[in-house]
């Protein structure tokens, strides 16, 4: 497991958390968060790039990330960084 954090004047404002699966040669991003007032400053990009560099040191062949369909800024960022859609998860509420 790895965490990268981003601080501003000693205050935590962003982080990314991921883990490496040796069996799949893959890093999964569990969570990425940036405080709202610090968004759109490239911080999420920096964190994802740092995690990608770490993934390479682990000899990972792939990075995966699950993003809610309403999180359009993160979907756009991932596409800009070369991520591709691989799955669509669907559900139905039943009574």
From TrEMBL:
Domain of life, per lineage: Bacteria
Domain N-acetyltransferase as annotated: residue spans: 1-95
Keyword Chaperone applies: no
Alphabetical UniProt keywords: Transferase
GO molecular function: acyltransferase activity, transferring groups other than amino-acyl groups
InterPro entries, per database record: Acyl_CoA_acyltransferase, GNAT_dom
Name the record gives this protein: Aminoglycoside 6'-N-Acetyltransferase IK
Organism: Staphylococcus aureus
């Amino acid at each position: 497991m790895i965490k990268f954090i981003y601080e501003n004047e000693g205050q935590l404002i962003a982080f990314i958390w991921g883990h490496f699966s040796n069996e799949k040669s893959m890093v999964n991003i569990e969570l990425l968060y940036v405080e709202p007032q610090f968004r759109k400053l490239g911080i999420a990009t920096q964190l994802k790039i740092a995690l990608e560099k770490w993934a390479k040191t682990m000899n990972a062949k792939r990075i995966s990330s699950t993003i809610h369909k309403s999180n359009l800024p993160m979907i756009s960022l991932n596409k800009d960084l070369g991520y591709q859609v691989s799955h669509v998860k669907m559900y139905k509420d039943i009574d």
